[in-house]
Amino acid sequence: EIEKQKLLCSITLEGSKYVGLLNYNLKRDFVGMQIYSNKDIYIGQWENGIRHGNGCYIHYKEQPKGKKITE
Fold first, then answer.
1. Extended strands (E) in 1-71
2. Residue 20 in contact with residue 30, Cβ under 8 Å?
3. pLDDT tens digits for the chain (71 residues)?
4. With the CA atoms of 17, 19, 21 and 27 taken in that order, what torsion angle do they form, in degrees rounded to the nearest 10?
5. Which pLDDT value is given to residue 69?
6. Distance CA 11, CA 54 (A)
7. Which residue in 11, 15, 14, 3 sits closest to 28, CA to CA?
8. For a Cys-Cys bond, which of 12, 23, 37, 54 suits 29, CB 3.0-4.6 Å?
């Protein structure tokens, strides 16, 4: 059944990148990672092109130049 098949892919479009599975309609599905053009990252579950289920959204925060990160 074609509806149950998944395609593993890597797509770059307009500064964003997606690595993961697509469904038969070529929409993000099941699990994958999206790196947005603003450098935010989402890793988790997708359903028919929409973030859905469990996942982790990481907001990118640029460090000021010259500032050292200490532990």
1. 7-13, 16-22, 28-35, 41-47, 50-58
2. yes
3. 667 788 999 999 999 999 999 998 999 999 999 999 999 999 999 999 999 999 999 999 887 777 666 65
4. 0
5. 63
6. 22
7. 11
8. 23
